[in-house]
């Protein structure tokens, strides 16, 4: 029997994809927003495709803000975009 692949919905484009193909954005218990590269940290997670376009779409449609039920300052998005750049460059 085939192993079930956990699917997650991108908060940017709304597409369902395998968990491994996506980046997890995390809200910690302290309310801090960060990129969870391992996908195993504790906290509330939202998923974004591994493309800058989806992150920008999530910023525009407030997808992360809906997921975490808090408002997210612009500098947090800028930080996430920087982290995305370093990951895409690898």
Provide structural commentary.
The structure is a single chain. With 90 residues, this protein is an alpha+beta fold. It is built from three helices and five strands; from the N terminus they run βββββααα. The strands form two sheets. A three-stranded antiparallel sheet has the order 4-3-5. The longest helix is centred in the last third of the chain and has 16 residues, at 74-89.
Strand order of the largest sheet: 4-3-5
Low-confidence regions:
none
Q: Estimate the global geometry from the Cα principal axes.
A: globular
Compute the separation of the termini in Å.
Answer: 34 Å
The helix content, as a percent range, equals 25-40%
Using only C-alpha atoms, the radius of gyration works out to: 13 Å
Assign the structural class, choosing from mainly alpha, mainly beta, alpha/beta, alpha+beta, or little secondary structure: alpha+beta
Largest sheet: 3 strands, antiparallel
Features:
3-stranded antiparallel β-sheet; 3 helices; 90 residues; 34% helix; alpha+beta; single chain; two-stranded antiparallel ribbon
């Amino acid at each position: 029997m085939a192993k079930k692949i956990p699917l997650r919905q991108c908060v940017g484009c709304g597409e369902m994809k395998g968990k491994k193909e996506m980046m997890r954005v995390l809200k910690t218990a302290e309310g801090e927003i960060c990129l969870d590269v391992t996908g195993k940290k504790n906290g509330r997670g939202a998923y974004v495709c591994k493309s800058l376009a989806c992150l920008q779409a999530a910023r525009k449609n407030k997808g992360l803000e809906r997921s975490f039920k808090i408002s997210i300052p612009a500098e947090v998005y800028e930080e996430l975009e920087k982290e995305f750049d370093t990951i895409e460059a690898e």
